[in-house]
Specification:
This protein is α+β, with helices and mostly antiparallel strands. The chain is built from three helices and three strands, in the order H-E-H-E-E-H. It has a three-stranded antiparallel sheet with strand order 1-3-2. The longest helix has 15 residues.
Length: 82
């Protein structure tokens, strides 16, 4: 388990804790907030977010003020396992 796994777990746990599922969205810029300093590499965080979007664990919603994301309710079991 590396830094990317820690970042992935942090982001998924944060969104689940705040109940950001399906139709409730948050800005993509809010995801790294609260991460410990040693995990805060912008390049690493962006890479993990892109992986989560590709694997459909995160759903994106483009808006005129930036990209919004939410957890995919259809992948709830997989997200809880992570």
């Amino acid at each position: 388990m590396g830094i990317e796994d820690d970042i992935k777990r942090f982001i998924l746990r944060k969104l689940a804790r705040h109940r950001v599922w399906q139709h409730k969205h948050t800005s993509i810029h809010n995801l790294p907030k609260g991460l410990p300093d040693y995990l805060r590499s912008k390049k690493e965080v962006r890479k993990v977010i892109d992986e989560l979007l590709k694997s459909s664990l995160l759903m994106s919603k483009p808006t005129n003020y930036g990209l919004e994301v939410s957890l995919n309710i259809e992948k709830k079991k997989e997200i809880e396992d992570i």
